[in-house]
Amino acid sequence: MDRYRLHVNGRQREVRVPGDTPLLWALREELGLTGPKYGCGVGACGACVSLVDGQAARPCVRTVEESEHTRITTIEGLSARGDHAVQRAWLELDVAQCGYCQPGQIMAAVALLARTPDPDDEQIAEALRDNVCRCGTYPRIRAAVRRAAELARGDR
Amino acid sequence: MITRRSFLGTAGALVVAVSAPVPAGATTGGGGPLAPTVFVRVDRRGTIVATVPKPDTGQGVRTLAAVLVAEELAVGVADVTLEQAPGDTATYGPQGIANSTSARQLAQPLRTASATARCLLVAAAAAHWDVPAEECAARDGRVTHPRHRPLPYRDLVADAAALDPATVPVTLTPPQDWRLIGRTRAGRADARDIVTGRAHYGIDTRPEGGLVAVVARPPWIGALVESVEDTGALAVPGVVAVVRLDPPGAGQGGVAVVAGSTAAALRGRETLRVTWRGGTPDADSREWLADLAAALPAAPPGDLQRVYRLPLLAHAPMEPMNATAHVTADGLRVWAPHQDPGGLATQLARQLGLPEASVLVNATLAGGAFGRRIEPDPVAEAIACSRATGRPVTVRWTRVDDTRHDSYRPMSVHRLSATLDAEGVPVGRHHEVVTWPLTVLPVFNNPAIVRASGDHFPYTVPGEVSVLLRESPLRTGFWRSVYAGQFGYAEECFLSEIAGRGGHDQVDLRRRLLPADSRLRRVLDVAAARANWTRGVDAPLTRGVACHLDYGSAIAVVVTADPTRRRVVGVHAAVDVGVAVHPSGVRAQVEGGIMDAVSTVLGAQVTVRAGAVVESTFGDYAWARITDCPDIDVAIVPSTAPIGGLGELAYPPAAAAIASALAAGGDPVTGMPYGTPVG
């Protein structure tokens, strides 16, 4: 086993795993961060989406080795109390059904709003098109991203 | 001390629709909490705890419980603490979530238990003040009286728990006084845990000392393990054991690689060499469909006929199948995202020859279910792996495992025939179905049962429905709406085609064929009005309508589509579910059924070639994305009907309305997905 230093949610962490271990399993099983969900393991569903250097990334198709020297933010690092604008919008519009895909949806929305503070529906759809929701919460996700943009701007 | 039996026996007119005995520690009286039944207790600090007997897979039963208990105990929804009951049917009654029963089975026992607690608290306060109970009221966690300072529940619990419930009349809060039921704007009970990543699903279970297993599964349908070469796998760092899983005891069969981590187990599985035998390596779903079509009986007389071909569908919940088990000398512990923890516990105890008390099934949240998680196969695998290693083991299915080793919705072929009057209005009908039974439940190997599941034709057109079952060539199971998803789709698509051919409006024809005072006609009128139906749409937009009556609920769906882009643009649904306890949750279930319809009518199907399921992930099992999502409007029609089922209500009509809208701009509907080769 090799040692890798990972910068996760503002802290330096160390994992001892083979370098080609998918980052997702290191986060979930070595660091106990189970917020990013396993949905497919091949980058096809978005349930694990987290931020890597501020960009939406899929830890299931990144290795631990290539994740060194990056800044990783999982859903746990967004706001433990759930008071980030995106989380508040998700609560206000009661988006979740089973909730399993929502950490990935939320992190994808956070990444979108960071670069496009006032997205239209097309931009929202484009940014979240590879985040699958099997319960059918898409209409609420779309509305919640718009609402999060308002909240982030300080609108009521 | 009041025993459960004496309480029930002396309760008189009090309606306590709870069959469950009160377990030790949860009885009223003594120094414990106020706990009229196993479902509700108020502890000495005034904390209100609801024990939710059924698991939440996204259908919202935990929220439903919080709303009902909060209503009757006169507190806010957020003031109710939720506990999830373990699998224990003797204590909690039926714990399965199937057949859209969550609300219908739980509303009465939860409300009654909470109302009993409230009335006991009020009685205790009345006794304390020496005033009639009728002068007191429960409000915001306190009992009030015009001439006294309010008493918080925590100060009343001891006295209330010491009262003889048989002496206290219990009244449910009447509908005109409801603050929360049907009105609350509260969100999902677990929403904050979900948005912060804290929500705990089955896949997040990691007991102390726990191992992880992944399974090499049959490469073609029905294949069995002939031999295993596991030297390479056992040499992978972290791999602990290789366990042969033989059906039927250990699920569908395969070879498990058990390791200290998922990554190691996956690496081990890659190096495993398994030789397989038997099964059907040449199976092809196109041939299966042809076999079903060839088995259609001779066509009955009729003025219009249409044959519909429907594909295999996978459940594909976002959380892939998984289960954790720990077999010890004392018994068995299971953690599973399962649809029936009580039934599972009973089944496992019987299979393993253990007393039920030594089998503990913990029901976790589930990342979707849709009928798949009523089956125990992942649990059986975890038990086999734990038994082989003596450690707790979590079996994880990969997404590919999940897609390719599902219990699929059966393929089906439907021939609809109609006799029309001079105006082109149907006056007689035939619906002949050829399909497979559900292999996961033998009782479904019976045409009458299949028909009862599928046939809910609500219109005043006399007719005959026949079902012919062929042997299923692969594992089939419950898929949201079960056979109604197939029967209802064909019936409603056909009715819309009849309307189009006769020059009738899709809504008008349905109104003619429904009794004037029917709930279905009412929701149809509401949906049509909200969709501005009479105004019509401009080219290239088209419209489709469908209705459905099932589970004691009624729904109508109006779809606007753009066939030139193969897109659903807008959906208006109106639903009568009797009492809509949690309005946002009611709308969510309808939205979910609509999105399932978008997915399956526009593209998702499972195909089999060379003995194996072709689709593997969401990359090729073409489930809807946000880019496919229409605007959805769901109207909850006020109703005085008893509480109805909901989870499986919206899918059949939504699918039919979407297909009918697409067909209004092109070829008639002949199957599912629309305009796509099936199988």
UniProtKB/TrEMBL annotation, chain A:
Q: Which ranges carry the 2Fe-2S ferredoxin-type domain?
A: 2-78
SUPFAM superfamilies tied to this protein: 2Fe-2S ferredoxin-like, CO dehydrogenase ISP C-domain like
**Sample GO molecular function, one term:** metal ion binding
Q: Which PANTHER family match?
A: BLR6218 PROTEIN, OXIDOREDUCTASE WITH IRON-SULFUR SUBUNIT
Protein name listed in UniProt: (2Fe-2S)-binding protein
What keywords tag this UniProt record? 2Fe-2S, Iron, Iron-sulfur, Metal-binding, Oxidoreductase
Identify the InterPro entries for this entry. Answer: 2Fe-2S-bd (IPR002888), 2Fe-2S-bd_dom_sf (IPR036884), 2Fe-2S_ferredoxin-like_sf (IPR036010), 2Fe-2S_ferredoxin-type (IPR001041), 2Fe2S_fd_BS (IPR006058), Beta-grasp_dom_sf (IPR012675), Diverse_Oxidoreductases (IPR051452)
Kindly give the Pfam families that the UniProt entry links to this protein: Fer2, Fer2_2
Domain of life the protein comes from: Bacteria
TrEMBL record, chain B:
For whether the record's keyword set contains Signal, the answer is: yes
Q: Which InterPro entries does this UniProt record tie to the protein?
A: Ald_Oxase/Xan_DH_a/b, AldOxase/xan_DH_MoCoBD1, AldOxase/xan_DH_MoCoBD2, AldOxase/xan_DH_Mopterin-bd_sf, N-heterocyclic_Hydroxylase, OxRdtase_Mopterin-bd_su_IorB, TAT_signal
Question: Pfam families, alphabetically?
Answer: MoCoBD_1, MoCoBD_2
Enumerate the spans annotated as Aldehyde oxidase/xanthine dehydrogenase a/b hammerhead domain: 196-280
Q: State whether keyword Signal applies.
A: yes
What's a Gene Ontology MF term here?
Answer: oxidoreductase activity
Q: Tell me the first and last residues of the signal peptide.
A: 1-24
Its recorded name reads: Aldehyde oxidase/xanthine dehydrogenase a/b hammerhead domain-containing protein
- Keywords for this protein: Signal
Q: Which SMART domains match?
A: Ald_Xan_dh_C
Matches recorded under SUPFAM superfamilies:
Molybdenum cofactor-binding domain
